[in-house]
Design a protein that fits this description.
5 helices; EC 3.6.1.12; hydrolase; mainly alpha; single chain; binds 2'-deoxycytidine-5'-triphosphate; Helix Hairpins; 0% strand; 129 residues; dCTP diphosphatase protein
Length: 129
């Protein structure tokens, strides 16, 4: 009982942040800055080498794949999925994105710029009807 307040606080803080996050216009730069702060506060930069980040990302792709494993084809919008499953899916997609951003930063690749350039190249390679 004495610990209840201490346990509740982080939960409440996360709920508050989730409400604020719903109305945020998220950019790759913002995520990159937040990830740099997160790693710095934990002295994790030395572990965040390109190879380690790539392996961590691939592991998260595995966790993402597990969600879809053995359930047959899934229609767009995941109509018959439960909210908890969709939330889990969001977490795994986020893990992949967050490692991809950190990998790009560790390789000094401008991910947003590279993605825009790739869309331009794709448009040339696959012209519209
Ligand atoms: N050295 C690390 C460890 C974690 N993370 C961040 C990136 C991911 O968003 C998340 C991954 O954390 P976990 O390794 O705990 O993986 P999961 O969140 O998937 O937990 P679990 O594997 O228990 O489901 O934390 C990070 O940036 N650098």
């Amino acid at each position: 009982m004495a610990n209840m307040g201490a346990d509740e606080e982080p939960e409440k803080q996360i709920q508050k942040e989730e409400e604020e996050n719903k109305v945020m216009d998220v950019s790759l730069n913002l995520l990159s800055l937040k990830l740099k702060e997160f790693a710095k506060a934990r002295d994790w930069k030395e572990y965040h080498t390109p190879r380690n980040l790539l392996l961590a990302m691939v592991a998260e792709v595995g966790e993402l794949s597990e969600i879809f494993m053995w359930r047959g084809e899934v229609g767009r919008g995941l109509q018959d999925w439960e909210e908890a499953e969709k939330e889990h899916l969001g977490e795994e997609l986020a893990d992949v994105l967050l490692y991809l951003i950190q990998l790009s930063d560790a390789c000094e690749v401008d991910l947003g710029g590279a993605a825009l350039n790739k869309i331009s190249k794709n448009a040339l390679k696959y012209p519209p009807k």
